[in-house]
Design goal:
By secondary structure, the chain is mainly alpha-helical. It has 17 helices and 2 strands.
């Protein structure tokens, strides 16, 4: 069985190289999103830095990635997804080297911004490359395996980073990325090239610059809002809203807008993306709250907390391949069920009365939340035509990344815990609010599916919502 890229067949060997390249890219990108949280105190001591500047080691990476993915996906459609994946991984590897050698906090933060550029180039085009390389009946499985293999870094990232920091140095996290990124680039170079539809390579430069600036402003606002005065937050929100309004008006008048009408009018894709934003936010908060709770509420040292979290981490990693076996027509329904189940799990975590119960419930949570996240990317890719896959992936990844940023801001009080009753209550409150959002999204998605029973996968709703 062969897939099709740019109208030509793709050999099984080229598909395997594409799968390996995307899995490595996801692993690297996710490891650097979650692998430095426990290393921040040591980074501050080594670089003689601290205070408000230290969180930017994490924030700079996430903000640059979230701001650039929208445009990066579309550029991959226009100029070649394989080329963008190779360039993204090379940029990521070189920036990782710069991070490993950084002599000061300012240099480290700057290198992290460049890492985010590489991540933004690699992630959306990687999923689009798989969507075009694999035939329809194998596409979901391929994306599921890539997300499952790479997703181990999402679940285990904090403990991989913590272990490397304790055993070697926080710089080891970045040194690990260098050979992995170069391996991924070498694998990507051996697969087939893929483009979007049409021969035009015209780019809406104004739209690209504008949407990147607006998203960058929104990312900074989300990340810094808890630390800014209310007047500054309000001014920033008004500015971002005004810029986004101008961009929408400009897009309607543009001959070749950054996001075409085929995507913006695809109701199935939009609904799945919004539900996926809730799923990703729930997953990030789960990964944020549960390890801290194991250490604080249950008084486990870092090593034992990491061991206890292996069950949820493994369940989350295995969820990707399992999600890949869900038929495209059933993906939205299964995703709705997983969102509701995830809400139940998060609610149970808030009232678990023993460590054993907590770990067992968390393992179930890792499974259903991992399924929800994987199905988001599988289902949204199935809801669009292959030639728009990069654009769709870029928009989806941007939306779910920004939503996760809001979630982390919500969970901020949990990091101030000291094992006291009030702090534990803050964690429980975060879990219950997230559970409510997940239940609402799951029910809303199920109702939408029920109202549109005839809507199928890609191509069935490309022109209307």
């Amino acid at each position: 069985m062969r897939g099709s890229v740019g109208g030509g067949p793709v050999s099984a060997g080229a598909r395997r190289w594409a799968l390996l390249a995307v899995a490595v890219a996801v692993f690297c990108v996710q490891l650097d999103a979650f692998g430095l949280n426990l290393a921040l105190p040591q980074i501050g001591r080594d670089l003689h830095a601290g205070g408000a500047g230290l969180p930017w080691v994490v924030s700079a990476y996430l903000l640059s990635t979230g701001a650039l993915m929208w445009g990066a996906g579309r550029l991959g459609d226009l100029f070649g997804r394989r080329r963008s994946l190779v360039v993204g991984l090379v940029v990521f590897g070189v920036a990782s080297l710069a991070c490993a050698l950084a002599p000061t906090l300012a240099v480290l933060v700057g290198a992290r911004v460049v890492q985010g550029v590489g991540a933004a180039l690699a992630m959306p085009v990687g999923l689009a490359l798989l969507s075009n390389a694999y035939p329809t009946e194998l596409r979901g499985r391929a994306i599921g395996w890539a997300l499952g293999i790479g997703g181990t870094a999402t679940a285990c990232g904090p403990f991989i980073g913590g272990a490397l920091t304790d055993a070697v140095s926080w710089r080891a996290v970045f040194w690990l990325n260098v050979p992995l990124a170069l391996l991924g680039a070498a694998c990507a170079a051996r697969t087939a090239e893929s483009h979007g539809a049409g021969g035009s390579r015209t780019v809406d430069v104004g739209g690209l610059v504008g949407v990147t600036a607006a998203l960058a402003g929104l990312c900074v606002l989300i990340d810094r809002a808890p630390h800014w005065p209310r007047s500054a937050v309000l001014a920033g929100a008004v500015s971002v809203a005004a810029l986004l309004t101008l961009l929408v008006r400009r897009a309607r008048a543009a001959g070749k807008p950054l996001v075409g009408p085929e995507l913006s009018s695809n109701g199935r894709y939009l609904v799945l993306t919004l539900a996926g934003a809730v799923a990703n936010t729930a997953t990030v908060l789960f990964l944020f709250v549960v390890p801290l709770t194991l250490q604080e509420q249950w008084d486990l040292p870092v090593v034992r907390a990491g061991a206890a979290f292996l069950a949820p981490a493994l369940a989350m990693a295995l969820a990707g391949p399992v999600a890949g076996r869900v038929p495209p027509r059933a993906a939205a329904g299964v995703m709705a069920g997983c969102l509701c189940a995830g809400a139940l799990v998060l609610g149970c975590l808030a009232v678990a009365s023993s460590l054993t119960a907590y770990v067992c419930v968390a393992a179930a949570g890792g499974a259903v939340l991992g399924m929800s996240n994987a199905l988001t990317l599988i289902a949204t890719q199935a809801a669009v035509r292959p030639e728009r896959a990069g654009e769709a992936s870029g928009v989806t990844k941007t939306v779910i990344t920004l939503a996760a940023g809001l979630g982390v801001a919500l969970a901020g009080p949990v990091t101030d815990r000291g094992g006291d009753v009030g702090a534990e209550s803050a964690a429980d409150t975060v879990l219950l609010i997230t559970a409510s959002a997940g239940l609402t999204a799951g029910v809303a998605l199920a109702v939408w599916i029920g109202l549109r029973p005839g809507v199928g996968p890609a191509g069935r709703e490309e022109s209307g919502g």
